[in-house]
Amino acid sequence: MATTSDISVGAYIRFNGDICQIMEWMHRTPGNLRAFYQAKMRNLRNGKLAENRFRSGETIELLRVEVHDLQYLYRDGDNLVCMDQETFEQKYIGVEHFGEALKFMKEEMIVQVGFESDVAIFARPPKTVELVVTYTEPAVKGDTSNKVLKAATVETGAEVQVPIFVEEGTVVRIDTETGAYMDRVKK
Question: For residue 100, what pLDDT is reported?
Fold first, then answer.
């Protein structure tokens, strides 16, 4: 157990049974009141931000989390098999850790996985991915109003909204957090 003075930005704690990462950590001393710590933290289970106040000297369960860069190899049922780039050890990571970004992941991508005593507690895919458009309807001639989007299927099977000028075979950059088209990749 640690106290509030041992916590810093980026630390991982167990709060209300969930694992949270400290995003902001400020010591406050308002007027005639007692000092406290104001924390903004991200819940790793659902990704939501929460704020809480801790009394000075309060004990908090500080977690030792190791973050590794792993290479995604293939899917095996409800797990993704990922390989440690240094030891070549294969680890099974649950698909629930990747959320909606799973539909944009290709084999051989590098992902970040956080472990607490050899148990995966969170996973982050790359922020952006470059994928080839495998199917899209041709553009309608004369439809050139602002921000016209059409559906396109990318090589992983996911469907995204792209501008009308994107054709089959075009490489596009996609934000894995929102699933939104960002731009064309010129190669």
Answer: 87
Backbone angles phi, psi at 101, to 5 degrees: -70, -15
Query: Which residues on neighbouring strands pair with residue 119, listed in sequence order?
Result: 116
Cβ neighbors of 77 (< 8 A, separation 6 or more) are none
Q: Class assignment of domain 66-124?
A: mainly beta
The domain spans of the chain are 2-63, 66-124, 129-184
Q: What is the reported pTM? A: 0.75
User: Which of 20, 2, 109 lies closest to 57 in space, CA to CA?
Assistant: 2
Q: Which residue has the tokens 């790359």?
A: 126
10-42 pLDDT, tens per residue?
A: 999 999 988 899 999 999 998 888 899 999 999
CA distances from residue 131 to 69, 81, 124, 158, 168 in whole angstroms, order as listed? 21, 21, 18, 10, 11
Q: What fold does the segment set 2-63 form as a domain?
A: SH3 type barrels. (2.30.30)
Is there a contact between 14 and 59 (Cβ–Cβ < 8 Å)? no
